[in-house]
Amino acid sequence: MPKIYHDLTLELSPETVVVPGDPRPQFREVKSISRGDVLNLTNLSFGTHTGTHIDVPKHINDNGLTVDRLGFDRLLGPARVIEIRDRRAIERADLEKHALKREMIVLLKTDNCRLINACAFDPDFAYLTRDAAEYLVESGVKTVGFDYFSVERLDNPLLDVHSVLLSGDVVIIEGLDLTAVEPGRYEMVALPLKVRNGDGGPTRVVLIEEA
Asked: pLDDT by residue for the chain (211 residues), tens digit each?
């Protein structure tokens, strides 16, 4: 049966938007055919939470699970795209109506679709509240994807949404471009860089749809 592939991954470049305070990506040409070298070679420098990326428990806990030890069941399999619009603070009640189930991979499509491909970070993005995070944990969701660079508001120094999710064994994928994806059920493939003892890493995320 024909399949449609949706690439949810943001392009990684020196212009990639980052959360304020995170290191900006840097590309340095090491070798260049145009300069007489026999090959092209580029040195890349970027943070582990750049562009489309994964957050694992090590992100908020020194003893937490690292990205290189993350099970593939969190990264591959059935996924559900849920659309929640006209809400900046996404709360428990906004999620409860979707009847989430255990072991689900849930990708949240919000008004951030209007922001995700902009050339600058927008602090007025939609975000999850603590009670929404608690509901995701209570529901037994195993992975939650979000369509901006952070799941929680920028002025929250406690990072309690990250803490609730990651401490509750819910993996987070941030920076998804869900602009062209309709709500519904798909198969997801998400492959982060295998960073030893990593707290996260840039991730290629693809949804597969039966045509």
From this structure: 789 999 999 999 999 999 999 999 999 999 999 999 999 999 999 999 999 999 999 999 999 999 999 999 999 999 999 999 999 999 999 999 999 999 999 999 999 999 999 999 999 999 999 999 999 999 999 999 999 999 999 988 889 999 999 999 999 999 999 999 999 999 999 999 999 999 999 999 999 998 8
Structure tokens of 85?
């619009």
Quote the tokens at residue 100.
């989430």
Domains, the chain, ranges and CATH? Answer: 3-13+47-210 (3.50.30.50)
Strand bridging mode 143-146 / 171-174: parallel
- 70, 73, 79, 81: CA torsion to nearest 10: -20
pTM of the model: 0.96
CB burial of 28-51 (b: ≥16 within 10 Å; e: otherwise) equals: eeeeeeeeeeeeeeeeeebbbbbb
Among 97, 91, 102, CA closest to 131:
91
| Catalytically annotated residues | 59
- CA–CA dist 48, 50 (Å, integer): 6
- The answer to whether the CB of 112 falls within 8 A of the CB of 153 is no
Side-chain half-sphere exposure of 122, counting CA atoms within 13 A: 17
